[in-house]
Amino acid sequence: MNPAGDFIERHLNLHMVGLIDIRKPLPGSERLHRHRFWQINLACAGEIGLWSQHTRQRFCAGDLLVVPPGAPHYLDYSRCGVYRGLTFKFDLTADHTPPDDEFLLVRGDAASRRLIAAVTELCRGFLPQALETPNREFNVPAGGMGHLPLEDMLWGVLRYYYLARAQHRSGGEIFFRLRELIARRNGAPVTVAELAAEAGYSTGHLRVLVRERTGEPTKTFIDKERIAIIRNHLKYTSLNMSELAARLGFCHLLYFNKFFRKYAGLSPLAYRKRCWQEE
Amino acid sequence: MNPAGDFIERHLNLHMVGLIDIRKPLPGSERLHRHRFWQINLACAGEIGLWSQHTRQRFCAGDLLVVPPGAPHYLDYSRCGVYRGLTFKFDLTADHTPPDDEFLLVRGDAASRRLIAAVTELCRGFLPQALETPNREFNVPAGGMGHLPLEDMLWGVLRYYYLARAQHRSGGEIFFRLRELIARRNGAPVTVAELAAEAGYSTGHLRVLVRERTGEPTKTFIDKERIAIIRNHLKYTSLNMSELAARLGFCHLLYFNKFFRKYAGLSPLAYRKRCWQEE
């Protein structure tokens, strides 16, 4: 019916957005509670108390909190000085079993601070009226469109922090990290010793890890990752071969050709031609 | 296998991110071309030329460009003074037929500017190395996790601007807008005359529009929208009935009860109890 049909499907229905802005301690009215919907809190400035069933922690600027359905929690404004934060209450449209019935507190780092800044920008751009009156929750129009980018962003927050945690537990995170360290070079060479140093392992430990996981020497693992990166450069950019070889750290086009052919089975130029012909 | 399995599924695979930062005109090397992947360009500052098959337009700070697969386009840096912008190249994981084989140029407004700021924050937080060297494209690690929030955000951009356009064509946008205008009051009353003025219609025209679409008087349409908002306040907040009635613009709790009961068939308190009991 709708030409954009496939694009409309939502992952989450955002119901309420609140900007909390407190300049002095508020007498406590809430207490430990749980609810059936999901909640995300982002701490923009200051700090408050955060109670779980057993402990009280600090919830500080840059931190983020994911409260899955059923998780007991209580944000305590009664002992804070200054606090500014965003609250989002939503349901998921598909049935995702939360990995835990406890909330997830993510401590602030450079990435989470940027994320909070990004979400704040989106609120200002797409739901400005939600921020007009602090300390009141704003009802998000059901079925509206204006907040779609914000919903997608929140889905990203949920996905990323839950996924990251799950990967961390399953041990897969180490491999993601190695791949990202190699990717940071953007295709330029990286030695086993450099990779080990950046990942915080001894070269010996790294070699064992990689051998266990891939059955191959670390050098081969690195080379194959580089080849994947180079394929992307060939497919998605229009740099000519000499420029590309130079950017990838090859001192001569011949070495670039040889390296690529060894793993990919054809020359870089032939690979690009094949990609482009397909189009 | 993975406890976060359902959360991992991706909508798009981001391959390349580039920060373009130009201080003086660059001699033209590109020309009109098309490719099989998707591309999004965000103009952060300055302006450049943008060619389609037939015309040249300006692509200015705050604008955004969606280039679906197959759409001829050409970003012309040869006549610009200063320009700074972000480029994203990606594939969709599911098969979405683009509504058009032409690119979509969205002119800058307050929302698009906030969106561009948000995407920039996400790049800085989750893919900082992509911004380190301007005018080179950075390969995003395939299967990596660090850029998931950015991918979700781009998906939101694509969805929102494609969806908005499609809705606009189908005429449904007017109704979304009316609902959003009502929602801005956060449950407080709005008269037919106010709604008409905010939407830019005469009250007569608004009445005809609403009657055609819903078969009901505009007052009933507004009231039902307000009831949906009030339901959310009852379900997702813990405000007591007097506070809530006051915030919703009722001068007495009795009127609030009567209004809610008329459409919902039970008292606000009974509705809240039912919501909370279910949990």
UniProtKB/TrEMBL annotation, chains A, B:
Name of this protein: HTH-type transcriptional activator RhaR
Source organism per UniProt: bioreactor metagenome
Coiled coil start-end: none
Domain HTH araC/xylS-type, residue spans: 176-274
InterPro entries to which the protein is assigned, alphabetical: AraC-bd, AraC_XylS_family_regulators, Homeodomain-like_sf, HTH-like, HTH_AraC, HTH_AraC-typ_CS, RmlC-like_jellyroll
Gene3D superfamilies: Homeodomain-like, Jelly Rolls
Transmembrane recorded as keyword: no
Gene: rhaR_78
Keywords, in A-Z order: Activator, DNA-binding, Transcription, Transcription regulation
Pfam families per record: AraC_binding, HTH_18
Gene Ontology MF term list: DNA-binding transcription factor activity; sequence-specific DNA binding
UniProt KW Transcription keyword: yes
